[in-house]
Amino acid sequence: MKKFTIFALIACVALTSACGPKDPGLKDAYKNYFKIGVAVTERNVTDSLQAALILKEFNSITAENCMKPGEIHPQAGVWNFEKADIIANFCREHGIKMRGHNLVWHSQFATWMFTKHDKNGNPVVELDEKGDTVWVERPSFGRFPGFGGGNPPAGFPGFGGQRPGGQRPGAPAMQTTKTPKYVAASKEEFYDSLKVHINTVVNRYKDVIYCWDVVNEAMSDANNPDAPYEDSFRKSQAYQLCGDEFIKNAFIWAHEADPNAGLFYNDYSAWTPAKRTYIYNMVKKLQAEGAPITGIGMQGHYNIFDNPTLEDFETAINMYLELVDDIQITEFDIRINEEAGGGLQFSRGEGQVYTEEIQKQQEKKYADLFEIMRKYKKNISCVTFWNLSDRDSWLGANNYPLLFDSEYQRKPVYYTVRDFKKNK
Predict the structure, then answer these.
(1) Cα 380 to chain center, whole Å?
(2) pLDDT digits (tens, 9 = 90+) for 59-80
(3) How far apart are CA 300 and CA 116, in angstroms?
(4) Are residues 262 and 169 in the same domain?
(5) Is 424 inside a domain boundary?
(6) In a domain, 423, yes or no
(7) What average pLDDT score do residues 401-418 get?
(8) Domain stops at, among 181, 207, 223
(9) Which helix (H) or strand (E) holds 215?
């Protein structure tokens, strides 16, 4: 038996002893409803106490960052499987299935796919009329403390899969560097690269991954439910090159790689009248054209106030059930400020005071949303918390978004979610 496994088992025994033999985990409380999942890093699964917590509470795992295209496939012919393999092997060892996150996303994407490459896999440099390299100035950023390192990928996507709304307080000033200008890939060349990416990643993990977020956040943030179909899309590089066809093809290629996997379109603010309309129209159209979209992922980046309203949340679920049989709440957290969705406008180090009143508001919001989700247990197959504890959260510990505190201890809101039968 591996050394790690022994430590994890010891920690499991300690955790069970401390809590008592009749102390169920979240997955046990919801065994007749849906899977309870969690997004993790490789650190979470290699720390024995954190691993024990995962094994007790959850029965579905998502890799928070390391399976995203730009992380796992940063350059043509270059693959970074190490971190993803650590998480996948943890799941294999302990019999836990994974959600794959994700195959196509405008942020943290393998942006090299939009550049033409020669037969040796090198990007093709654009030359001027004299045959000299064309140079361009590009923005560059210094390292953001606490954000996992390095310059942000093209498009400044932020951390943990979300986009900040502007430069953070204390962030290093933007600089410019000169780089060669590369020849743009054609649509066909882009598709060749994308198909290889999807086929390689899906096949590597198909034994442990039961569903994929195939395409992530392709719809616009415009708040207009009546917008024309073309205006409902985020104007990403993929959309500008391919229109909505890249979404359809991604689902087709994912299905070819693993016909048994659930295939999800995933987006934040999927409860709002505008975005739920955009998602509905896109899925309906592409399904009619042959895209095997089998599920819709509603990211749950909510707050304790009116995001989402309970009425709109349930309305969105019913809309999506006209198109698919499987819905998942894929990135669940409830922050205590007024922001929500994919935006991260504030400094992660500056949260609000977690007063008793705010705690009660958070408990009520969790209780109300879980009540609705339990109502749709036949069609909601998994609810995934986005990170293990407040300490791990992309929102920052001082916004208290999850069920476990910065010391990986249960907060009062944990019992609100777990003991719903007792709390009635």
Answers:
(1) 17
(2) 999 999 999 999 999 999 999 9
(3) 37
(4) no
(5) no
(6) no
(7) 97
(8) 181
(9) strand 209-216
Kindly name the residue from 42, 64, 331, 339 that is annotated as catalytic: 331
For the question of whether the overall pTM of this predicted structure is more than 0.85, the answer is yes
| Residue pair 293/263 in contact by the 8 Å Cβ criterion | yes
Q: Kindly state whether residue 24 falls inside one of the protein's structural domains.
A: yes
The residue whose two tokens read 């060749």 is 192
- Whether 202 contacts 196, CB under 8 Å: no
State the pLDDT at residue 344: 65
Gap between the Cα atoms of 418 and 399, Å rounded:
21
CA distance 372 to 170: 41
The residue annotated as part of the active site, out of 42, 57, 64, 217, is 217
Given 181, 198, 224, the domain boundary residue is 181
Instruction: Yes or no: say if 133 and 36 are a contact pair by the CB < 8 Å rule.
Output: no
- CA dist 423 and 420 (Å) reads 5
DSSP 322: T
Cβ(77)–Cβ(120) below 8 Å? no
Domain of residue 138: give its range.
Answer: 125-181
Interval 126-156: pLDDT, tens? 887 887 788 888 776 554 333 333 333 333 3
In this structure, what token pair is assigned to residue 302? Answer: 């909510």
Element of type H or E holding 331: strand 326-335
Tokens of 280: 């509905």
Average pLDDT, the chain: 88
Catalytic residue at 217?
yes
Spatial CB neighbours of 68, under 8 Å, sequence gap ≥ 6:
101, 102, 105, 108, 109, 161
What 3-state class would DSSP assign to 306? coil
pLDDT at 126: 83
- Same domain? For 36 and 172 the reply is no
Euclidean distance between CA atoms 301 and 384, whole angstroms: 11
CB 97 within 8 A of CB 212: no
User: Phi and psi (nearest 5°) for 319?
Assistant: -60, -50
